[in-house]
Amino acid sequence: QVQLAESGGALVQPGESLTLSCAASGRTFSTSFMGWFRQAPGSEREWVARIGWSGIAKDYADSVKGRFTISRDNAKNMVYLTMNALIPQDTGVYYCNFIYFPNWQPDDSWGRGTQVTVSS
């Protein structure tokens, strides 16, 4: 059974940084792709970033490229999202999940997410 627990969300001002954490279980973490997604108020959930099992292969949505960095610690079954130069459009609930190759689809199970609010 997939279990996901996101944390680290906060209210921050534009231009500030924040790092989110996610504890994942229920699949073989060390050989799984992992990803971050977000859902803004009134919008559908969208993909933000993904990382390969070794931590080398990474990909980002155009809206966050150059500002966000995804990383993982296979010894701890953790995935992280470091967000720099935050803008109000980054506001939303952030979720992590397993991602399945080759269609890059997330697992059907989701955690509660963690709220990020960027506002002055």
How would you portray this structure in words?
By secondary structure, the protein is mainly β. The chain is built from no helices and eleven strands. The chain has strands at 3-7, 11-12, 18-25, 33-39, 46-51, 58-60, 68-73, 78-83, 92-100, 105-106, 114-118. Strand 9 and strand 10 (105-106) form a beta hairpin. The mean pLDDT is 96.
Low-confidence segments: none
- The rough form would be described as globular
Residue-averaged pLDDT, rounded? Answer: 96
Helix content: under 10%
User: What are the secondary-structure elements, in order, as H or E?
Assistant: EEEEEEEEEEE
What portion of the residues fall into strands of 2 or more residues?
over 45%
The Cα radius of gyration reads 13 Å
Q: Based on helices, strands and strand pairing, what is the structural class? A: mainly beta
- The biggest beta sheet, please? 7 strands, mixed
First CA to last CA: what distance? 40 Å
How many helices in DSSP terms?
0
Provide the descriptors you would attach to this structure in a database record.
120 residues; 11 strands; four-stranded antiparallel β-sheet; mainly beta; seven-stranded mixed β-sheet
